[in-house]
Write a structure and sequence with these properties.
Number of domains of chain A: 1
Structural class of chain A: mainly alpha
Distance between the termini of chain A: 64 Å
Structural class of chain B: mainly alpha
Number of strands of chain B: 0
Number of strands of chain A: 0
Largest interface: A-B, 48 and 49 residues
Largest sheet of chain A: none
Number of helices of chain B: 3
Order of helices and strands of chain B: HHH
CATH topology of chain A: Four Helix Bundle (Hemerythrin (Met), subunit A)
CATH superfamily of chain A: Cytochrome c oxidase, subunit III, four-helix bundle
Radius of gyration of chain B: 21 Å
CATH class of chain A: Mainly Alpha
Oligomer: heterodimer
Radius of gyration of chain A: 20 Å
Chain lengths: 206, 107
C-alpha cells in the first residue's frame, strides 16, 4: 500500500482527525499552543485592567463604548462558533461538501465581525480622536482588542487557505486534522472574545 | 467474516447516532450561551449595582467559556487528559499573570 492509499482509505475512520500519528500529534501540540495563547492574552488583559483608568484627560471607557455594536459583534462571533461545530460534525461523517459550506458560513460571519471591529476603531479615532497614543488606556485597549482582531484575521485566512487548497482533493486523513485544528483555533478566538466583551466593554460602561 | 462486517456497520451506525445526539446538545449549549450573553448585556444596560453585576457577569463568562471548551471543543470526550493538562497549565499561569499585573498597579 502506498502512502496515498493509507491517507485515502476506502472507509474513513470514525475520527479522521486522529487517524494518523501526525494527526494525533497535531491535536496535542495545538492544545499546548492554546495554553500558551491563554497566557499571552492574560498579560494583555492584566495590562488593560491595570491601566484602564489612566485616561490622560481624554475620553473614558464609559464615554466611548456603545454596547449595541458590541452585542451584535458578540452574536456574530458566537454563531460562527456554532457553524464551525456543524462543519466538524460533517467532517466526521465524511461529508466534504457540507463541511465546506459550513466553513464558508463561518468565514462570512468572521469577516462581518472583523468589518464591524474596523468600523468601531475608525469611529473612535475620527469621532473621539481616541488612538493608541492618546493614553495608557488607549494603548492597552487597542493592543488587547487589536490582538484579538488579528487572531480573527489569521483564523479566517487559515480556514480560507485550507478550503481552497483542499477544494479538489476532498477529505482525507492528511487534511482532516488540519480542518479540526483550525476549528479549535476558531473556538478559542470566541473564548477570548467572551472575556473581552465582559471585562472590556461591559465592565467598561458600568 | 460477514458477521464482522455487519458488526462494524452496526457500530458505525451507533456512533453516528451518538454524534447526532451530541449535535443536539451542542445546539442547546449554543442557545444557553446566547441567553447568558443577553442576561449579561441586559444587567449592564439596566444599570444595576456595580458590586452585584461585576461578579455575576464574570461567572456567566466563565460558564460560557466552559461550555465552549467542553462541548464545542470536545474536551468532554475521552483522550483529552493531555490537552486539559496543557490548557489548565496555561490558565494557571494566566491567573498569576493577571494577579501580578493588577496588584502591581492597584496596590
Amino acid at each position: 500500500m502506498s502512502e496515498h492509499d493509507v491517507l485515502n482509505p476506502k472507509e474513513m475512520p470514525l475520527n479522521p482527525e486522529k487517524g494518523t500519528l501526525e494527526g494525533r500529534n497535531k491535536f496535542v501540540g495545538f492544545w499546548f499552543f492554546l495554553g500558551g495563547e491563554t497566557v499571552l492574552f492574560a498579560s494583555l488583559f492584566g495590562t488593560y485592567l491595570a491601566l484602564n483608568d489612566s485616561v490622560n484627560g481624554g475620553k473614558t471607557s464609559e464615554e466611548l463604548f456603545g454596547l449595541e455594536l458590541v452585542f451584535i459583534m458578540t452574536m456574530i462571533l458566537l454563531t460562527s462558533s456554532l457553524t464551525s461545530v456543524y462543519a466538524m460534525y460533517h467532517m466526521k461523517n465524511n461529508a466534504f461538501k457540507k463541511m465546506q459550506i459550513w466553513l464558508g458560513i463561518t468565514v462570512v460571519l468572521g469577516f462581518s465581525f472583523l468589518g464591524l471591529e474596523i468600523y468601531e476603531f475608525t469611529h473612535y479615532i475620527h469621532e473621539y480622536e481616541f488612538t493608541l497614543r492618546s493614553s495608557a488606556f488607549g494603548s492597552a485597549f487597542y493592543t488587547l482588542v487589536g490582538f484579538h482582531g488579528g487572531h480573527v484575521l489569521f483564523g479566517l485566512l487559515w480556514i480560507v487557505s485550507l478550503m481552497i487548497r483542499n477544494a479538489k482533493r476532498g477529505l482525507n486523513l492528511y487534511n482532516a486534522p488540519k480542518f479540526y485544528i483550525a476549528s479549535l483555533y476558531w473556538h478559542f478566538i470566541d473564548v477570548v472574545w467572551v472575556f473581552i466583551f465582559t471585562v472590556v466593554y461591559l465592565m467598561g460602561v458600568l | 467474516m460477514a458477521e464482522k462486517v455487519s458488526a462494524t456497520t452496526a457500530q458505525i451506525e451507533y456512533e453516528k447516532q451518538k454524534r447526532k445526539e451530541e449535535m443536539k446538545q451542542q445546539v442547546i449549549t449554543f442557545a444557553l450561551m446566547i441567553i447568558f450573553t443577553i442576561i449579561a448585556f441586559g444587567m449592564v444596560m439596566a444599570e444595576m449595582s456595580k458590586l452585584f453585576v461585576i461578579p455575576v457577569i464574570i461567572v456567566l463568562a466563565a460558564v460560557q467559556v466552559g461550555f465552549q471548551l467542553y462541548y464545542f471543543m470536545h474536551m468532554s470526550h475521552k483522550g483529552h487528559e493531555m490537552p486539559a493538562f496543557m490548557f489548565y497549565g496555561g490558565v494557571f499561569a494566566a491567573f498569576l499573570t493577571i494577579l501580578a499585573l493588577v496588584v502591581l498597579v492597584w496596590w
